[in-house]
Amino acid sequence: MMTTAPNRENILQAHELIAPYIHRTPVLTSVFFDQLSGSNIFFKAENLQKIGAFKARGGLNAILQLTEEERKNGVATHSSGNHAQAVAYAAAMVGARAYVVMPDNSPEVKVKAVEGYGASITFCKNTPEEREATVQKIVSETGATFIHPFNNYEVITGQATASKELIEDVDIHLDMIIAPVGGGGLLSGTALSANYFSPGTQVYAGEPEGAADAILSFRSGKIEKAPYVKTVADGLLTYLGDKTFPIIKEYVTDILLVSDEEIISAMRFLWERMKIVVEPSGAVSLAAVLKNRAIFEGKNVGVVISGGNVDLGKLPF
Protein backbone atom coordinates (compact mmCIF):
# COMPACT_ATOMS: atom_id res chain seq x y z
CA MET A 1 0.00 0.00 0.00
CA MET A 2 1.26 3.49 -0.85
CA THR A 3 2.24 5.55 2.18
CA THR A 4 2.84 8.89 0.51
CA ALA A 5 0.93 11.04 -1.97
CA PRO A 6 1.32 9.83 -5.57
CA ASN A 7 4.04 11.28 -7.75
CA ARG A 8 4.08 11.71 -11.52
CA GLU A 9 5.42 8.21 -12.13
CA ASN A 10 2.73 6.64 -9.91
CA ILE A 11 0.01 8.27 -12.01
CA LEU A 12 1.62 7.16 -15.27
CA GLN A 13 1.89 3.57 -14.00
CA ALA A 14 -1.70 3.57 -12.70
CA HIS A 15 -2.98 4.77 -16.06
CA GLU A 16 -1.16 1.99 -17.87
CA LEU A 17 -2.46 -0.59 -15.36
CA ILE A 18 -6.14 0.36 -15.56
CA ALA A 19 -6.28 1.30 -19.26
CA PRO A 20 -7.51 -2.14 -20.46
CA TYR A 21 -10.47 -1.97 -18.07
CA ILE A 22 -11.73 1.62 -18.49
CA HIS A 23 -13.02 3.91 -21.22
CA ARG A 24 -10.88 6.82 -22.30
CA THR A 25 -13.92 9.03 -21.96
CA PRO A 26 -14.51 11.78 -24.52
CA VAL A 27 -13.92 15.48 -24.04
CA LEU A 28 -17.08 17.32 -25.11
CA THR A 29 -17.64 20.95 -26.04
CA SER A 30 -20.74 23.11 -26.38
CA VAL A 31 -21.16 26.50 -28.04
CA PHE A 32 -24.19 27.08 -25.80
CA PHE A 33 -22.20 26.66 -22.58
CA ASP A 34 -19.26 28.65 -23.94
CA GLN A 35 -21.59 31.58 -24.59
CA LEU A 36 -23.42 31.17 -21.30
CA SER A 37 -20.20 31.14 -19.27
CA GLY A 38 -18.09 33.46 -21.39
CA SER A 39 -15.34 30.83 -21.35
CA ASN A 40 -14.12 27.91 -23.47
CA ILE A 41 -15.33 24.80 -21.64
CA PHE A 42 -13.97 21.30 -22.19
CA PHE A 43 -16.15 18.70 -20.46
CA LYS A 44 -14.42 15.48 -19.32
CA ALA A 45 -17.39 13.11 -19.59
CA GLU A 46 -16.80 10.62 -16.81
CA ASN A 47 -20.55 10.01 -16.77
CA LEU A 48 -19.73 7.82 -19.78
CA GLN A 49 -17.10 5.84 -17.83
CA LYS A 50 -17.45 2.17 -16.90
CA ILE A 51 -20.01 1.93 -14.05
CA GLY A 52 -21.11 5.45 -14.99
CA ALA A 53 -18.54 7.39 -12.95
CA PHE A 54 -14.85 8.24 -12.53
CA LYS A 55 -14.78 5.98 -9.46
CA ALA A 56 -14.00 2.99 -11.70
CA ARG A 57 -10.47 4.36 -12.06
CA GLY A 58 -9.58 4.42 -8.37
CA GLY A 59 -11.31 1.15 -7.55
CA LEU A 60 -9.47 -0.65 -10.32
CA ASN A 61 -6.08 0.83 -9.45
CA ALA A 62 -6.43 -0.23 -5.81
CA ILE A 63 -7.72 -3.75 -6.49
CA LEU A 64 -5.48 -4.61 -9.44
CA GLN A 65 -2.48 -4.01 -7.17
CA LEU A 66 -3.59 -6.55 -4.53
CA THR A 67 -1.67 -9.83 -4.26
CA GLU A 68 -3.35 -13.15 -5.07
CA GLU A 69 -3.41 -13.90 -1.35
CA GLU A 70 -5.16 -10.63 -0.58
CA ARG A 71 -7.70 -11.21 -3.32
CA LYS A 72 -8.68 -14.58 -1.82
CA ASN A 73 -10.27 -12.88 1.19
CA GLY A 74 -12.06 -10.35 -0.98
CA VAL A 75 -12.40 -6.60 -0.71
CA ALA A 76 -14.73 -4.39 1.33
CA THR A 77 -15.87 -0.81 1.15
CA HIS A 78 -18.63 1.63 2.07
CA SER A 79 -20.23 3.96 -0.45
CA SER A 80 -23.48 5.66 -1.41
CA GLY A 81 -23.16 4.15 -4.84
CA ASN A 82 -20.45 5.03 -7.35
CA HIS A 83 -17.43 3.76 -5.40
CA ALA A 84 -19.53 0.74 -4.42
CA GLN A 85 -20.03 -0.01 -8.09
CA ALA A 86 -16.35 0.60 -8.81
CA VAL A 87 -15.20 -1.88 -6.16
CA ALA A 88 -17.81 -4.45 -7.19
CA TYR A 89 -16.79 -4.08 -10.85
CA ALA A 90 -13.05 -4.22 -10.15
CA ALA A 91 -13.47 -7.24 -7.85
CA ALA A 92 -15.40 -9.04 -10.57
CA MET A 93 -12.58 -8.32 -13.02
CA VAL A 94 -10.06 -10.17 -10.80
CA GLY A 95 -12.44 -12.84 -9.46
CA ALA A 96 -12.50 -11.53 -5.88
CA ARG A 97 -15.48 -11.33 -3.52
CA ALA A 98 -16.77 -7.81 -2.81
CA TYR A 99 -18.49 -6.79 0.43
CA VAL A 100 -20.19 -3.40 0.13
CA VAL A 101 -21.79 -1.32 2.87
CA MET A 102 -24.40 1.08 1.47
CA PRO A 103 -26.62 3.66 3.20
CA ASP A 104 -30.23 2.50 3.48
CA ASN A 105 -31.35 5.49 1.38
CA SER A 106 -28.97 4.90 -1.55
CA PRO A 107 -30.47 5.48 -5.02
CA GLU A 108 -32.06 2.28 -6.28
CA VAL A 109 -30.23 2.51 -9.60
CA LYS A 110 -26.89 2.33 -7.73
CA VAL A 111 -27.99 -0.54 -5.47
CA LYS A 112 -29.12 -2.60 -8.47
CA ALA A 113 -25.86 -1.92 -10.28
CA VAL A 114 -23.78 -3.10 -7.29
CA GLU A 115 -25.90 -6.24 -7.06
CA GLY A 116 -25.44 -6.73 -10.79
CA TYR A 117 -21.67 -6.98 -10.38
CA GLY A 118 -22.15 -9.76 -7.82
CA ALA A 119 -21.27 -7.90 -4.63
CA SER A 120 -22.68 -8.73 -1.20
CA ILE A 121 -24.50 -5.63 0.16
CA THR A 122 -25.03 -4.68 3.81
CA PHE A 123 -27.23 -1.63 4.48
CA CYS A 124 -26.67 0.87 7.30
CA LYS A 125 -27.81 4.31 8.44
CA ASN A 126 -26.46 7.11 6.25
CA THR A 127 -23.80 8.57 8.53
CA PRO A 128 -20.00 8.34 8.10
CA GLU A 129 -19.74 6.77 11.56
CA GLU A 130 -22.27 4.01 10.77
CA ARG A 131 -20.59 3.26 7.47
CA GLU A 132 -17.15 2.92 9.08
CA ALA A 133 -18.39 0.75 11.96
CA THR A 134 -20.30 -1.60 9.66
CA VAL A 135 -17.48 -2.09 7.19
CA GLN A 136 -14.91 -2.67 9.96
CA LYS A 137 -17.12 -5.43 11.36
CA ILE A 138 -17.18 -7.11 7.95
CA VAL A 139 -13.41 -6.75 7.57
CA SER A 140 -12.80 -8.35 10.97
CA GLU A 141 -15.14 -11.25 10.12
CA THR A 142 -13.91 -11.95 6.57
CA GLY A 143 -10.31 -10.73 6.40
CA ALA A 144 -11.26 -8.66 3.35
CA THR A 145 -9.04 -5.74 2.32
CA PHE A 146 -10.72 -2.41 2.98
CA ILE A 147 -10.70 -0.05 -0.02
CA HIS A 148 -11.59 3.40 1.30
CA PRO A 149 -13.77 5.44 -1.08
CA PHE A 150 -11.33 8.36 -1.20
CA ASN A 151 -8.81 8.38 1.67
CA ASN A 152 -6.50 5.88 -0.02
CA TYR A 153 -3.45 6.80 -2.11
CA GLU A 154 -4.05 4.04 -4.70
CA VAL A 155 -7.60 5.33 -5.17
CA ILE A 156 -6.39 8.95 -5.45
CA THR A 157 -3.81 7.86 -8.03
CA GLY A 158 -6.47 6.16 -10.11
CA GLN A 159 -8.74 9.19 -9.97
CA ALA A 160 -5.85 11.38 -11.14
CA THR A 161 -5.88 9.62 -14.51
CA ALA A 162 -9.14 11.35 -15.53
CA SER A 163 -7.57 14.81 -15.63
CA LYS A 164 -4.37 13.38 -17.09
CA GLU A 165 -6.47 12.29 -20.07
CA LEU A 166 -8.28 15.64 -20.17
CA ILE A 167 -4.97 17.52 -20.31
CA GLU A 168 -3.64 15.21 -23.05
CA ASP A 169 -6.80 15.31 -25.19
CA VAL A 170 -7.33 19.10 -25.22
CA ASP A 171 -4.96 20.61 -27.77
CA ILE A 172 -4.63 23.97 -26.00
CA HIS A 173 -3.40 24.85 -22.52
CA LEU A 174 -6.13 24.70 -19.90
CA ASP A 175 -6.09 27.75 -17.65
CA MET A 176 -8.27 26.00 -15.08
CA ILE A 177 -9.77 22.62 -14.23
CA ILE A 178 -12.74 22.31 -11.90
CA ALA A 179 -13.97 19.11 -10.24
CA PRO A 180 -16.62 18.40 -7.60
CA VAL A 181 -15.50 17.69 -4.04
CA GLY A 182 -16.94 15.30 -1.49
CA GLY A 183 -14.25 13.25 0.23
CA GLY A 184 -11.64 14.71 -2.09
CA GLY A 185 -10.36 11.67 -3.99
CA LEU A 186 -11.18 13.12 -7.41
CA LEU A 187 -10.19 16.66 -6.47
CA SER A 188 -6.82 15.69 -4.99
CA GLY A 189 -6.08 13.47 -7.99
CA THR A 190 -7.09 16.27 -10.35
CA ALA A 191 -4.84 18.72 -8.53
CA LEU A 192 -1.87 16.35 -8.72
CA SER A 193 -2.36 15.71 -12.44
CA ALA A 194 -2.57 19.43 -13.13
CA ASN A 195 0.62 19.97 -11.13
CA TYR A 196 2.56 17.21 -12.91
CA PHE A 197 1.18 17.36 -16.46
CA SER A 198 0.00 20.95 -16.93
CA PRO A 199 2.02 23.38 -14.79
CA GLY A 200 0.25 26.70 -14.51
CA THR A 201 -3.25 25.22 -14.68
CA GLN A 202 -5.24 26.29 -11.64
CA VAL A 203 -7.56 23.78 -9.97
CA TYR A 204 -10.91 24.72 -8.46
CA ALA A 205 -13.61 22.69 -6.74
CA GLY A 206 -17.37 22.94 -6.75
CA GLU A 207 -19.12 22.01 -3.50
CA PRO A 208 -22.82 21.95 -2.51
CA GLU A 209 -23.93 24.46 0.11
CA GLY A 210 -25.66 21.54 1.82
CA ALA A 211 -22.40 19.66 2.39
CA ALA A 212 -19.96 22.52 2.83
CA ASP A 213 -17.14 20.90 4.79
CA ALA A 214 -14.30 21.19 2.26
CA ILE A 215 -14.55 24.96 2.04
CA LEU A 216 -14.49 25.23 5.85
CA SER A 217 -11.45 22.94 5.99
CA PHE A 218 -9.75 24.89 3.20
CA ARG A 219 -10.25 28.16 5.11
CA SER A 220 -9.36 26.92 8.61
CA GLY A 221 -6.45 24.66 7.68
CA LYS A 222 -7.87 21.61 9.45
CA ILE A 223 -10.48 19.01 8.57
CA GLU A 224 -13.96 20.29 9.42
CA LYS A 225 -17.45 18.82 9.25
CA ALA A 226 -20.29 20.60 7.47
CA PRO A 227 -22.64 22.59 9.75
CA TYR A 228 -25.54 20.73 8.12
CA VAL A 229 -25.85 18.04 5.45
CA LYS A 230 -28.75 18.28 3.03
CA THR A 231 -28.17 18.31 -0.71
CA VAL A 232 -29.43 16.74 -3.90
CA ALA A 233 -25.80 15.83 -4.70
CA ASP A 234 -25.82 12.49 -2.86
CA GLY A 235 -22.32 11.57 -4.00
CA LEU A 236 -20.71 14.51 -2.15
CA LEU A 237 -22.01 14.06 1.40
CA THR A 238 -18.80 13.01 3.12
CA TYR A 239 -15.96 15.11 4.53
CA LEU A 240 -12.27 15.21 3.59
CA GLY A 241 -9.72 12.66 4.74
CA ASP A 242 -6.22 13.01 6.17
CA LYS A 243 -4.75 11.89 2.82
CA THR A 244 -6.89 14.02 0.51
CA PHE A 245 -6.90 17.23 2.54
CA PRO A 246 -3.13 18.02 2.52
CA ILE A 247 -3.04 17.60 -1.28
CA ILE A 248 -6.07 19.86 -1.72
CA LYS A 249 -4.65 22.45 0.67
CA GLU A 250 -1.38 22.61 -1.27
CA TYR A 251 -2.54 22.42 -4.89
CA VAL A 252 -6.14 23.71 -5.11
CA THR A 253 -6.75 27.41 -5.79
CA ASP A 254 -10.23 27.72 -4.30
CA ILE A 255 -13.51 25.96 -3.48
CA LEU A 256 -16.78 27.45 -4.77
CA LEU A 257 -20.18 26.79 -3.19
CA VAL A 258 -23.37 26.19 -5.18
CA SER A 259 -26.98 25.78 -4.08
CA ASP A 260 -29.19 22.81 -4.89
CA GLU A 261 -31.18 25.04 -7.22
CA GLU A 262 -28.00 25.91 -9.15
CA ILE A 263 -26.95 22.24 -9.27
CA ILE A 264 -30.35 21.15 -10.61
CA SER A 265 -30.37 23.95 -13.18
CA ALA A 266 -26.90 22.94 -14.47
CA MET A 267 -27.92 19.28 -14.51
CA ARG A 268 -31.03 20.05 -16.55
CA PHE A 269 -29.05 22.22 -18.96
CA LEU A 270 -26.63 19.32 -19.56
CA TRP A 271 -29.48 16.91 -20.26
CA GLU A 272 -31.30 19.35 -22.56
CA ARG A 273 -28.42 20.98 -24.42
CA MET A 274 -25.81 18.20 -24.60
CA LYS A 275 -28.14 15.17 -24.49
CA ILE A 276 -26.10 13.45 -21.80
CA VAL A 277 -27.27 11.85 -18.55
CA VAL A 278 -25.53 13.55 -15.61
CA GLU A 279 -26.26 13.00 -11.91
CA PRO A 280 -26.53 15.98 -9.52
CA SER A 281 -22.99 15.48 -8.16
CA GLY A 282 -21.70 15.47 -11.74
CA ALA A 283 -23.29 18.84 -12.47
CA VAL A 284 -21.72 20.66 -9.51
CA SER A 285 -18.59 21.72 -11.43
CA LEU A 286 -20.58 23.33 -14.21
CA ALA A 287 -22.90 24.99 -11.70
CA ALA A 288 -19.86 26.60 -10.05
CA VAL A 289 -18.54 27.89 -13.39
CA LEU A 290 -21.90 29.40 -14.34
CA LYS A 291 -22.28 31.03 -10.91
CA ASN A 292 -18.77 32.52 -10.93
CA ARG A 293 -18.50 33.97 -14.42
CA ALA A 294 -15.99 36.61 -13.30
CA ILE A 295 -13.45 33.91 -12.34
CA PHE A 296 -13.70 31.83 -15.51
CA GLU A 297 -14.58 34.39 -18.20
CA GLY A 298 -12.23 34.34 -21.18
CA LYS A 299 -10.41 31.24 -19.89
CA ASN A 300 -9.94 27.71 -21.21
CA VAL A 301 -11.68 25.62 -18.56
CA GLY A 302 -11.72 21.84 -18.04
CA VAL A 303 -14.92 20.76 -16.30
CA VAL A 304 -15.01 17.24 -14.86
CA ILE A 305 -18.47 15.66 -15.11
CA SER A 306 -17.97 13.01 -12.45
CA GLY A 307 -20.91 10.66 -12.98
CA GLY A 308 -24.24 9.84 -14.55
CA ASN A 309 -25.93 7.36 -12.23
CA VAL A 310 -29.41 8.82 -11.79
CA ASP A 311 -32.55 7.21 -10.42
CA LEU A 312 -34.84 8.07 -13.34
CA GLY A 313 -37.88 7.65 -11.10
CA LYS A 314 -36.68 10.47 -8.86
CA LEU A 315 -35.41 13.21 -11.14
CA PRO A 316 -35.07 16.59 -9.36
CA PHE A 317 -36.63 18.42 -12.31
TrEMBL record:
<dbReference type="InterPro" id="IPR036052">
    <property type="entry name" value="TrpB-like_PALP_sf"/>
</dbReference>
<dbReference type="GO" id="GO:0000287">
    <property type="term" value="F:magnesium ion binding"/>
</dbReference>
<protein>
    <submittedName>
        <fullName>Threonine/serine dehydratase</fullName>
    </submittedName>
</protein>
<dbReference type="GO" id="GO:0030378">
    <property type="term" value="F:serine racemase activity"/>
</dbReference>
<feature type="domain" description="Tryptophan synthase beta chain-like PALP">
    <location>
        <begin position="19"/>
        <end position="307"/>
    </location>
</feature>
<comment type="similarity">
    <text>Belongs to the serine/threonine dehydratase family.</text>
</comment>
<keyword id="KW-0456">Lyase</keyword>
<dbReference type="Pfam" id="PF00291">
    <property type="entry name" value="PALP"/>
</dbReference>
<keyword id="KW-0663">Pyridoxal phosphate</keyword>
<dbReference type="GO" id="GO:0003941">
    <property type="term" value="F:L-serine ammonia-lyase activity"/>
</dbReference>
<dbReference type="InterPro" id="IPR001926">
    <property type="entry name" value="TrpB-like_PALP"/>
</dbReference>
<dbReference type="GO" id="GO:0018114">
    <property type="term" value="F:threonine racemase activity"/>
</dbReference>
<dbReference type="GO" id="GO:0005524">
    <property type="term" value="F:ATP binding"/>
</dbReference>
<dbReference type="GO" id="GO:0030170">
    <property type="term" value="F:pyridoxal phosphate binding"/>
</dbReference>
<dbReference type="GO" id="GO:0070179">
    <property type="term" value="P:D-serine biosynthetic process"/>
</dbReference>
